[in-house]
Specification:
Structural class: mainly beta
Low-confidence stretches: 1-6
Radius of gyration: 14 Å
Number of helices: 1
Strand order of the largest sheet: 5-4-3-6
Largest sheet: 4 strands, antiparallel
Mean pLDDT: 86
Number of domains: 1
CATH class: Mainly Beta
Length: 78
């Protein structure tokens, strides 16, 4: 991860960390949604603060790692 002129290596216990490229950023007053396209064409959307988008320099085309941590995943059928 690179922020500004600094470079950092981040260690994490989160195992699901697909790499992708930001395809859209929609900012509101406080929150933003960041859509990321994965290499296989799938998209993941994250809701983060607008301040985080600015601090991380996230724009369309920014390469990112998507850290996925979930306490529960549920499915249903009709």
């Amino acid at each position: 991860m690179t922020t500004g002129s600094q470079s950092a290596i981040m260690a994490s216990s989160i195992r699901d960390q697909p790499a992708g490229t930001v395809s859209a950023v929609r900012s509101g007053e406080v929150m933003a949604t960041v859509r990321t396209r994965l290499p296989g064409g799938q998209e993941i959307t994250a809701a983060i603060t607008r301040e985080a988008v600015e601090d991380l320099g996230i724009t369309d085309g920014t390469p990112v790692s998507v850290l996925v941590k979930s306490a529960e995943v549920a499915l249903t059928t009709s």
